[in-house]
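Co-fold these.
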Amino acid sequence: MPDAELMQRLRELLGDKGVREEPHPDWPDIVLKPESTEQVSELLKLCNAAGQPLVPWGGKTCLVDGLNETCGELALSLERMNAIEEIDTLNRTLTVQAGCILQVAAEACEERGLLLPLDLGARGSATIGGNVATNAGGNRVIRYGMMRDLVLGLEVVLADGTVVSSLNKMIKNNTGYDLKQWFIGAEGTLGVITRVVVRLRPLPQSQNTALVACGDFGSVSRLLGWLDANTGGTLSAFECMWPSFYQYVTREGSLHTPPLPQDYPYYILVETLGSRPESDAEEFERVLGEAFEQELIVDAVIAKSESERHAIWEIRDDVLGFMAQGPCAIFDISVTVDHIPDFVAGVDAFMDTVPDSYRVVFGHLGDCNLHLILGNTNPVVFDKQKLEHGVYELVEKFGGSVSAEHGIGIMKRDHLGCSRSDTELELMYRMKRMLDPNNILNPNKIFTADKVA
Amino acid sequence: MPDAELMQRLRELLGDKGVREEPHPDWPDIVLKPESTEQVSELLKLCNAAGQPLVPWGGKTCLVDGLNETCGELALSLERMNAIEEIDTLNRTLTVQAGCILQVAAEACEERGLLLPLDLGARGSATIGGNVATNAGGNRVIRYGMMRDLVLGLEVVLADGTVVSSLNKMIKNNTGYDLKQWFIGAEGTLGVITRVVVRLRPLPQSQNTALVACGDFGSVSRLLGWLDANTGGTLSAFECMWPSFYQYVTREGSLHTPPLPQDYPYYILVETLGSRPESDAEEFERVLGEAFEQELIVDAVIAKSESERHAIWEIRDDVLGFMAQGPCAIFDISVTVDHIPDFVAGVDAFMDTVPDSYRVVFGHLGDCNLHLILGNTNPVVFDKQKLEHGVYELVEKFGGSVSAEHGIGIMKRDHLGCSRSDTELELMYRMKRMLDPNNILNPNKIFTADKVA
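Predicted complex below.
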């Protein structure tokens, strides 16, 4: 339990609405809910002086167990700091408090005719601050980049309560070290993000979607380069599904009618976002026709209506359904495109040794990002650690990344060394020690507390 | 003079080719030229132990006096480490040693059918390492981003000789802190960049260029948003010239025939890079026609041949010619688009108070980046400090950046506070102290040595 005197002072600072007890079996029972950057700063000063650790809460998607294994932390939620402060249509920027929900911000921008490019499954619960802290990826990275690429400015509060305000709105600004980069993707371990300036883009006027099939992986990788070269900057999705994915999702009795036969080696959802509804559709069809003539693809179905587009995306997005087969581990890894076939073959060989197993492979192939769902139809034999060990050993073998877009949290902490050298890790520890010497900010995430003691 | 024993050991380490005396009135006379990362590491260990400062040399463009005011440094040139190690056409990456000249790397990529997106005037002398160290911008930022956005991986040697190898080739990699970001744009003060992995793009197949005129600044800023929204991701240049620029460059007796009359308020070079030579030209003309109908532009000339395109770009690029008018100061600043008219009006009002003055305004408006050339036709009254003071006071007033793309170096050191708060500066000092406690790496750049003593 936190120190009684500290709690008393936090209650005085934050008021009744600012300190809530929300009992939970795994998460901290006490949640601090400041309403301003000043309150964040003051509460951090108090906690830092008392050595009281905090775990910042975003949307709590928890894909890397970021909230589990807490020991004595207070939770810090910015849900009351959720204001959309400015949508600047001339400079095309959004200034927003960190607690704002991604979807709320995106819809507000859309109403003003602008696109907030980040989009991901958890859009309805994820916060902008969480998206920055985890350098979120999602559905349109191939076109607009990760969250890091969209952030122009940040306001961050350091562990000692120092407010670092770098709310830059300019695209070019080379004035000394780019401090915001230190905090993006640091998973809340170096500072608490309180405000963000996001670069907005014009709203696309056309969206063209197809599901295509490739006969071998060489064609898949050539198709990626070829489409990127022939769609003039509009390619926004290149989502690859292995037959294990496609066959299961579109199986008899499932919710989906298979738009293409089920016996192709690779299925790819391709999408472009353009500015000319009339000509873009025609052009999209022509480009896919050429890909067919060049034998890059062996089959294709182009969405001719909004409902057909949704039907294709729903196949790609129907990920939760797999888990009905039995307990599983979900992986979010990267390997370079040339290594993907051997990596997937390695996963197959490994899973062949696991009894009563099932496997699903899919991913944002345009970004080198694969997701794997590996599980057991017989719950009794499920061994998560064994599955993780098997996969991360392969990731290390192929020089890949144990976390493409979800971060490290607690779940991947022990596997960080597969993708990062001791020298790199030591630099991370030094940074953590410099900015958070008492280790109060999200301790034990990314690396364990003893590394920075 | 450096310590004799240190020099002896450096000569033993680097050999005859690795230590050269190149007398120069302003720059260090002794240049170290290592041929490998290992040599860079060893020489840094020696210099760090001896407290011997170093100034890393790139292409020596020197736009922010990065090489002047040296006091006892040894120069460190990576010109012998200039190998193009790999052009990976499948993953579309370039792995290159830091001393490689930008143009050499770009041409090698082009031969393999790929685009190295960074392009700038000094392409024939600037090195990739220098481009990373300064987070270079240039001609295509609006389409492909700054150098930071193109770097996938880095190898850096720290002041104490530690080699940090983060030669990542994957687009998505959220495994702990993104260390490379610390060194990009740090102007060689935190580490010596030895190797870089650059993300490549498909070579554009079409290039459409026009010079357009706008009647007022409101139209200019609306045109930027409108073109971005209506060219489907292909807009690559939006270069604005004020009449002071256009009229002088195309004056009677100049090298250039004015493609448009000389009495418009704003001239803009617009360019798109697309993938469909046939339809893109038609589309470009149609979009500009619509802009004319919507009264965003009042006149336009579209390049119909490669020589017409060159003629337009040569007007934009004929910057050195201005300096024939007399001594001048060159500025590289950013302000948000909404503030540009007031900022330029402020510069005009200020320059009206300067006797025998001339002024030129132009810039990468799509990136908020203005360049100013302010000088005196009468050399006797030229007062560079006064001009700098006048401009940076205006930059601070409008919340702008004293360096958009050239960095701080020595020239802008005293003005960094116009764009950065004391809190931000203190964080920079702390980082410098952590990574280079003896202050041997490019001391006195960005901030003076006493700040980190």
